[in-house]
Amino acid sequence: MTIDLRSRWLAPGTCALVTFAVFAIVYYANGGAAFPSDDAFINLHNARVLRLGQDETYLGVPALVGATSGAHLALLLAVEQLVYPDTAALFALGTLSGVAYVLGLFFMCRNLGCPDLEAALISLGGLVLAGTLFQLLNGMDTGLAMAAVAWTIKLLTDRRRGLWLPVLCGVMPFIRPELGVLSAASMLVLFSEIETSVRFKIAAVLVAASSAMPFLLWYWSDTGSLVPNTVSAKMYYFAERYADWSDKLFLMLLAVLQAALASFPLFLCLRFTRPPVVGRMLALFVVIFLGAYFWRFPSGLLHNGGRYLYLLAPIVLFGVACGLSSVFRKQTLCLVAISILFLPQGFITRLNDYRTQIAGTQGSLSDVVTWLNANLPDRPLVMVHDAGYVAYAGHAALVDLVGLKTPAAMEFHKRTTYPSVGLYRSTAIAEIADAFHPQYLLVLQDWDRRFGLVEALRGRGWTTREVYAGRAPPETPAANIYHLYELRSPTADVAG
């Protein structure tokens, strides 16, 4: 019996150790915990606010405002009790999410009848597919969400139903809001099974509700809402809901084609998925997922290296595992062989983007915040669009012009930017400045080029003077550099 147990856990244990080793290598190669996205520092800032009980940067704003994933934030708080500093804790949480993702893939493959060696290769290949590893390293909820999808498929393909599936279904909407659709669809699959007793189905509903209730109460008590505000804030700012269908379709197709190329030809294995009820449910999830982004926020699928689309990576690998363990094995092996020509390109593209973001974009932002702390010690009010690192490492008071961390700013975009499809975004930005009277503006050059933030203020009579530009490696594109502007309101000029 001991030998059998060791044999059964050898392959998944090896997968877990290899994943740990990969993350450890990245940690030491970077000289510690480093994150390519400013959003990672929103998580760290929110965790700090929860520990301290108040936000000294975004005054009067609850910690869960701007927190998309309550589950990720709760886990970060737990890991911070064991790992120090908090940046290392966030990296450790990303590592654990990566391990959970790989193990979910492994046991999913084992459920389908794949030999342990093939299951291990598929699950570790999940780190390489479309450069997934670098999404697991982003310090956000992406890895946790991908792990949730992998384990949902694993639990749906179990031969015997247990209560872990409804537990996960209850939590999933608080890992990523989009997973609420997968949660509901998974519960429908469970309820459609004739062989499952009514007693078990009632228990499943109660368990799912019980696992969701703590998060519902947490959000309600902290923010007065049952759902996070991040999706609404971005939707109102980018204002694509009423854009021309042709423009929305172009953005959607661009995002999907990039994802298809990065996962080509493995995504063709989706036609092998089984059992049919699970395959249809996953297809429905994908259609609703893409349809919701097309309707409200198509460009969101291109943000942060297309991170939202990586929720679909476990589904692609599910198709591969189904193909390898079926009569379509030879066809699947051919597709896997061809993919060897394409997977390196996707991995290298994500690797280069990861390096540029850490050394260039985040390096520039870090340099500006260091200068701001040293030269502006009196806590001026700074208007920002990237609300994370400057709140985490800076000492200034902040107003987030997008509205993630400043809900009042979101209302300006809801009233002006959103219905005008972005045409009057500059008016909303100027109105936010008029309402909050910031003394400085911190802006990424790419954002200023796309949205005309500086010109919006000048057009409303504000005086802007650049006082500092973040330093970064010479190869950093100019678009990735942060600039700090001193602002003077029209009323101040009149008074002067």
Compressed to H and E, one letter per element, the order equals HHHHHHHHHHHHHHHHEHEHHEHHEEH
Structurally, the number of domains stands at 2
Secondary-structure content class: mainly alpha
Low-confidence stretches: none
- Helix segment tally: 22
**What is the strand tally?**
5
Helix content: 55-70%
User: Hey, roughly how much beta strand do the residues contain?
Assistant: 5-15%
Output the radius of gyration. 24 Å
Shape: globular
For the structure shown, list the relevant keywords.
62% helix; Rossmann fold; 496 residues; 2 domains; 22 helices; 5-stranded mixed sheet; Glycosyltransferase RgtA/B/C/D-like domain-containing protein; mainly alpha; 5 strands
Brief summary:
This protein is mainly alpha-helical and 496 residues long. The chain has helices spanning 2-29, 39-52, 70-80, 86-111, 116-125, 132-136, 142-156, 164-171, 179-192, 198-223, 230-238, 245-262, 276-296, 313-324, 329-339, 343-375, 389-393, 407-417, 425-436, 445-451, 453-459, 490-495; strands at 381-384, 397-400, 440-444, 463-469, 482-488. Strand 1 (381-384), helix 17 (389-393) and strand 2 form a beta-alpha-beta unit.
Itemize the secondary structure elements and their pairings:
Layout: H1 2-29, H2 39-52, H3 70-80, H4 86-111, H5 116-125, H6 132-136, H7 142-156, H8 164-171, H9 179-192, H10 198-223, H11 230-238, H12 245-262, H13 276-296, H14 313-324, H15 329-339, H16 343-375, E1 381-384, H17 389-393, E2 397-400, H18 407-417, H19 425-436, E3 440-444, H20 445-451, H21 453-459, E4 463-469, E5 482-488, H22 490-495
Parallel strand pairs: 1-2, 1-3
Antiparallel strand pairs: 3-5, 4-5
Helix pairs in contact: 1-4, 1-5, 2-3, 3-4, 4-5, 4-7, 7-8, 7-9, 7-14, 8-9, 8-10, 9-13, 11-18, 12-13, 18-19, 19-21
